[in-house]
Design a protein that fits this description.
CATH architecture of one domain: 7 Propeller
Largest sheet: 4 strands, antiparallel
CATH topology of one domain: Methylamine Dehydrogenase, Chain H
Helix content: 25-40%
Mean pLDDT: 85
Keywords: Repeat, WD repeat
CATH class of one domain: Mainly Beta
């Protein structure tokens, strides 16, 4: 009985280890602007590298958009080149500066081969065309090495001729058709060409102007002409582009640029348009389109202000899918400060000459995007990402939505963490920036510290550097700290051994000399004159500024290697921590002069350190061992370890008003957002269960007692309590909302609460300023857009200009016109169009105002009338009132947000239907309104579905609330496992959400059925109506002593255990099976219930007309038998039967709920148990596989993931089997709960923590759940769905699963 080792007396729910810190957001890096081959594309995927990691984006066909699929990081030094295998889209190669080449399997995201002695750094790398599994690489002077990865001749060979070059190699390219032919480009501008059987040509074809000189003009790009065996396009940085013949060694065409200043950085052929190629300029982001037959470009587009770095054309452009399943406008990829230039307008004859295709563009500032050349728009733009290590990150003191990051790449960027886009970026390049500090309050300035250029203060909104500090000379400043209590003082510490305190206008107040470099400093949170430092001499020092002495008040010794950061506790006076290269964190008590704890666990130097601002004992550290650890400093235990970063973790931060949302930054160039809320369970549930204040808020002394449950001790929670105490009447709704906003991560919870308030009839004037930026309630959508249109028309540019990338007057008018049009204000639209000189657009809709108005416009500018072939669909539809067509048009283009606006405007009666014949004037406006309403709901549903499958359940719920579809909103929260939020919101919404709230409470109660929180589970169930049965299950499962069990029975109004035994016997005598089971489970001998229940269920299933609903209540009740009774040896037969029946019922329930990903696993689990265990149940293995096949055949149409080609219609017998299944399964009573679960962060790729699911055999994307053996992993989504339909673990041990 190996199972028994899982149990300890009081924890029958052997809690599987599941990372408690939840990843809720990721800011991807940009593409590195050094080395040549840093982006690659293949089929519907493209990749780029950022220093240490390779980012893989893949097309999501359903929404026709690219999504981040994987971050692959095994390199320890900068990646120098990547290459996609031309004949196998899953194979990929990368090389790095530590002489390493790795071959990856992209689908499994794992390294399949490594070569770690490349004799020199590979500068360029490429798969050998038509040579099976071989990769070639070359360092700057050669020779060319060829590594055969597998097969009989695996190993590294040297190319016979490609060596002893006279000039460095920039890059090389194999010929795609002519086997073995290869060309090299050199820094002196020459080429070298080798092919088997011909004389090798070294250093030929230098640009003519360079002949006879020793000037350098490096080859920036080289590509073989796909239509010929000998032609080659070459770009030199200064001498432009030539088409050369590699056989006769002559130049066929030299291409001319419009301006002499233009220089080419990269080029690519367009496979879909023979003879066409594109180039990117090196100084400015101009994309030029060429045809080999013309020496000048056919077209030029300015895509960005910064120059190009790399270009690739996707060989199979994304296919447009059928209507009605697209994502909303992808404007969330381009931030407000995005450097991207708006798309140019063009005349139709130009549009035909452009090649269709998508170009992957990488820019010198790290921007990377996918540009649709045919439509002239960005399909995807990752603008302004950091391209190197991010050393520090901090939230803005007065705005928890703004996060600043400082990087090795020389910039500080400020991000909006709700949209994950950059709002500001610091001007110029400052070298390496090690540290940043916001000015306190609302001063809107950031102080930065650099490696060589001193310190500076950046005025963020004005975009200017206002002050520089040079007291440390050229020495690196490792830390800069603006005093929280006195906004005039700034501290810096440096490699020169000084910690300097100065005023912001540069007056030095103190210079504290240390015996070695000083790496960290931190102002005390309680005493404005106290500062601590961390020094290379392994010591921590505390200085007191109010004295003139330059000696420390205290020196703490104990670390065995250099001390980096120090942090004072915000809640416990005199307590500070320090992180060191010895891998430990030490906690010091200033008042006792002592080290009170040593936290060991990290295996490398510690960098990031952060105290929680509400829970006094919670401390978080980040290390060079790639992990983040969460500590309970009372006894030094590590509560959780997070393995998701792909390199050293440097900065950790959280905002006091959102104390459980943490940001971290790393050498992997990403910023990640985490929710720490699961660490403080059961606090959140205490709030939901309306427990007394002293179980929620406490003082620090109480909270730091060993073993005390978590209590909130910070300012935010105290403020909430004060506000709640002021309220008259029932404060519960407000209390739930305020705590929910404080505990929930960003990403829609505030938006959700605003919508709840609107639905509950709150006055609109109380809505916050930024309400209009999120998902608005339908009744506000049109009104807000109208005022925005007016504002756009009248606003005058302020004297500073409108910030980065502010729109011109023309753009503003266009934007305003667009809004007026969608609001049905046709005349205003015409006037604006006329002002912009777009007569055709004005005229095509003018009749919507009146025929007279149209004539007047015609006369005013008849001579300006230009006949265009393309009639603009949008104005036409609006003028004629054809809403349906317009909504379909927007939806088909994936502009769901636009479709929503139009549908809502129609519902408000803003669209006029043109009555053409006056005779039948009896139109029915009400009928239309109903159609429009249905349309509105349909579009909101699509938008919600798009958010939901993107791992943003809360925003999906917002979309449903906006059209007051409360049922679906609640269902999205439950399916996203946002149970606490669902209960809070459901409680406030009241009756309309009652059914869903009850379900969420039941799931939460299951979550609480662990050691410490049984009574909480009872409290939650008491909040639901008709709760007797749920309380029975809770008591049946409770593992305490008889006395404890009786206490719980009493709390739940149930008879004591002795009495239950008698009741069971009476019920059995009366033949009432359900009551018999119920009371036996509550008695001293619960195992007596098993044979009775199982026998009954077997009899039911043996009838031909049984249904799921006739057996589920019995199975569900039986599954709550105490685990230690279920695993007794004498129960093994009934236990196995219970597991098999639960598995089978679970499979049917999963079909009912459309949990497609786990249906096969449940059938497989049931078959395996049937095969391996001695049982007699009325189920056959053949029957199970028949049902599974029938389900697959009959639902494959619905799950369109399979290719259209391989579709075979289900056979007649399969249809029969499936229809029998459906008749058994019946409808799901809870509407909207149908469909897979998808928790926040499911769409985020992990970086270094890779797990394979034991259910599907595939790599798990998003959060992982470990089963009770501690090794087997499944995705959290699958675990949730499994537990909802079958409570027992997939390992067949009889242990209940608790992933909630």
């Amino acid at each position: 009985m190996e199972i028994l080792k899982w149990f300890t007396k009081n924890d029958t729910y052997s809690k599987a280890k599941m990372s408690q810190v939840k990843q809720v957001g990721l800011l991807a890096a940009g593409c590195q602007p050094w080395n040549k081959d840093v982006c690659a594309a293949s089929g519907d995927r493209f990749a780029y590298c950022a220093t240490l990691a390779i980012y893989i984006y893949q097309l999501d066909h359903r929404y026709n958009e690219f999504k981040l699929r994987a971050i692959m990081s095994e390199h320890k030094k900068t990646i120098t080149a990547i290459s996609w295998c031309p004949h196998n889209p899953d194979m990929f190669a990368s090389a790095s500066a530590d002489n390493l080449v790795i071959i990856w399997n992209v689908a499994e995201q794992k390294a399949v081969a490594k070569l770690d002695s490349t004799k020199g750094v590979p500068a360029s790398l490429s798969w050998c065309w038509n040579a099976g599994d071989a990769v070639a690489f070359v360092s700057h002077r050669g020779p060319l090495y060829i590594w055969t990865i597998s097969g009989p001749d695996s190993g590294v060979a040297v190319h016979k001729e490609a060596h002893s070059f006279l000039s460095d190699i920039c890059l090389f390219r194999w010929h795609p058709k002519k086997k073995g032919k290869v060309v090299f480009g050199h820094t002196d501008g020459s080429l070298s060409i080798f092919q088997p059987g011909s004389k090798s040509q070294k250093h030929v074809l230098r640009p003519e102007s360079l002949e006879g000189t020793d000037e350098e003009d490096p080859v920036t790009a080289l590509e073989w002409d796909p239509l010929s065996t000998d032609y080659l396009l070459v770009a030199n940085l200064h001498n432009g582009i030539r088409l050369v013949d590699s056989e006769s060694l002559c130049c066929i065409t030299a291409f001319n640029f419009p301006s002499a200043a233009a220089s080419v950085q990269c080029l690519a052929w367009v496979p879909s348009a023979p003879g066409m190629f594109i180039t990117g300029d090196s100084q400015v982001g101009v994309l030029r389109i060429w045809n080999v037959s013309r020496t000048t470009p056919i077209d030029n587009f300015k895509l960005k202000k910064t120059g190009f770095h790399g270009l690739h054309v996707l060989n199979s452009p994304p296919k447009k899918k059928s209507l009605s399943s697209h994502s909303p406008t992808k404007n969330h990829h381009t931030s407000s400060t995005s450097e991207a230039v708006p798309p140019p307008t063009l005349t139709p004859n130009q549009a035909f000459s452009l090649p269709p295709g998508h170009a992957v563009c990488c820019f010198m500032d790290g921007g990377v995007g996918l540009y649709d050349m045919g439509a002239k728009k960005w399909d995807f733009l990752r603008d302004l990402g950091h391209v190197e290590t991010i050393f520090d990150c901090k939230f803005k003191p007065d705005n928890p939505d703004l996060l600043a990051t400082a990087s090795f790449d020389g910039t500080i960027k400020v991000w909006d963490i709700n949209t994950l886009t950059a709002v500001y970026t610091s001007p110029g390049n400052e070298g390496v920036i090690y540290s940043l500090s916001w000015a306190p309050g609302d001063l809107n300035c950031i102080a930065g510290a650099t490696s060589r250029n001193g310190g500076f203060i950046w005025d963020v909104p004005r975009g200017k550097m206002v002050t520089r500090f040079s007291e440390h000379g050229k020495n690196g400043i490792f830390c800069i700290a603006w005093s929280h209590k006195d906004s005039k003082r700034i501290a810096t510490c440096s490699g020169d051994g000084f910690c300097i305190i100065r005023t912001i206008d540069g007056k030095v107040l103190h210079k504290y000399k240390h015996p070695a470099a000083v790496f960290g400093c931190d102002w005390s949170q309680n005493n404005k004159d106290m500062i601590a430092t961390g020094c290379e001499d392994k010591n921590v020092r505390v200085y007191y500024l109010a004295t003139s002495s330059d000696q420390p008040l205290k020196v703490f010794t104990g670390h065995t290697a250099k001390v980096f950061h120090v942090r004072w506790s915000p809640l416990r006076e005199g307590i500070l921590c320090s992180g060191s290269d010895d891998g430990t964190v030490r906690i010091w008590d200033y008042t006792q002069d002592a080290c009170i704890n040593v936290l060991s666990g990290h295996t490398a130097p510690v960098r990031g350190l952060m105290w929680n601002t509400e829970i006094p004992y919670l401390l978080i550290s980040g290390s060079w061992d790639y992990t983040i650890r969460v500590w309970d400093t009372r006894d030094g235990t590590c509560l959780d370890t997070v393995y998701d970063h792909g390199a050293d973790v440097y900065g950790l931060t959280c905002h006091p008003s959102r104390p459980f949302t943490m940001a971290s930054c790393s050498r992997d160039s990403t910023v990640r957002l985490w929710s720490l809320t699961p660490l403080i369970n059961p606090l959140q549930i205490n709030i939901l269960a309306d427990r007394s204040w002293d179980e929620i808020i406490g003082n620090t002394d109480r909270a730091v007692e060993p073993g005390a449950p978590p209590l909130l001790c910070g300012k935010v929670s105290r403020d909430i309590k004060q506000e709640v105490d002021k309220l008259i009447g029932n404060p519960r709704g407000k209390k739930l909302r305020w705590f929910s906003e404080c505990l929930s991560p960003p990403g829609g919870s505030k938006n959700l609460w605003d919508l709840v308030a609107v639905i509950k009839g709150q006055d609109d004037s109380l809505l916050p300023q930024n309400y209009c930026k999120g998902i608005m309630h339908m009744k506000h959508l049109v009104r807000f857009r109208m005022s925005k249109a007016q504002e756009l028309t009248t606003v005058k540019m302020s004297k500073f200009g409108g910030g980065i990338g502010a729109p011109s007057k023309e753009e503003r008018l266009k934007e305003a016109a667009k809004i007026h049009l969608r609001l049905g204000q046709i005349q205003r639209y015409c006037e604006l169009m006329v002002e912009l000189g777009e007569w055709d657009k004005a005229l095509s809709v003018a009749p919507g105002v009146s025929m007279r108005y149209w004539k007047k416009l015609m006369q005013r500018r008849a001579d300006q009338l230009i006949q265009e072939e393309n009639d603009d669909v949008i104005p036409y539809c609006i003028a004629t009132g054809d809403v349906e067509k317009l909504v379909t048009f927007f939806t088909s283009r994936g502009q769901l947000k636009e479709a929503l606006l139009v549908a809502q405007a129609a519902c408000e009666g803003n669209m006029q239907i043109l009555q053409l014949s006056a005779s039948n004037g009896s139109s029915n406006p009400d009928g239309n309104l109903e159609d429009y309403n249905e349309l509105l709901h349909r579009v909101s549903k699509e938008l919600a579905e798009w958010y939901f499958q993107d791992g943003r359940a809360v925003l999906a719920a917002c979309c449903h609330l906006a059209v007051e579809n409360i049922e679906l909103a609640m269902a999205n929260l439950i399916r996203g496992n946002e149970l606490e939020l669902a209960v809070s919101v459901g409680t406030v919404l009241g009756e309309s959400a009652a059914q869903a709230t009850q379900y969420a409470l039941e799931l939460l109660a299951r979550k609480c059925m662990t050691v410490t929180t049984w009574d909480l589970a009872a409290d939650l169930l008491m909040m639901t109506p008709n709760n007797e049965l749920q309380l029975v299950k809770l008591c049946a499962f409770y593992p305490g002593s008889t006395a404890e069990i009786n206490d719980l029975h009493e709390k739940c109004n149930l008879p004591g255990v002795e009495e239950c035994m008698q009741l069971a016997e009476t019920a059995q005598a009366n033949g009432d099976v359900f009551e018999t089971i119920k009371y036996y489970l509550l008695s001293t001998e619960p195992e007596k219930a098993l044979p009775i229940g199982i026998q009954y269920i077997k009899e039911q299933i043996s009838n031909s007309d049984w249904t799921l609903d006739s057996v589920c209540p019995f199975l569900d009740l039986l599954s709550y038998i105490r685990t230690e009774r279920l695993v007794l040896h004498k129960c093994s037969e009934v236990r196995n039967e219970l597991l098999i029946l639960s598995g089978y019922a679970g499979a049917l329930l999963a079909i009912r709920r459309q949990y497609a990903s786990i249906v096969p696993a449940l059938y497989e689990y049931t078959s395996q148990l049937l095969k391996r265990r001695e049982v007699s149940v009325p189920l056959k293995i053949e029957q199970l596989s028949e049902e599974l096949d029938a389900w697959r055949a009959c639902t494959q149409l619905a799950n369109k993931s399979t290719d259209e080609l391989s579709y075979t219609p289900p056979s007649e017998s399969q249809r029969m089997v499936y229809s029998t299944l459906v008749s058994r399964i019946k409808e799901e009573p809870l509407k909207g709960i149908i469909g897979p679960d998808y928790v926040t962060g499911s769409n985020l790729p992990s970086h270094s923590d890779v797990h394979i699911s034991c259910l599907t055999g595939l790599r798990i994307q998003g959060p992982v759940f470990f089963l009770e053996d501690g090794k087997s992993a499944i995705s959290l989504n699958d675990a949730l769905m499994w537990a909802k339909v079958n409570p027992f673990s997939p390992l067949g041990t009889g242990i209940r699963l608790n992933p909630f």
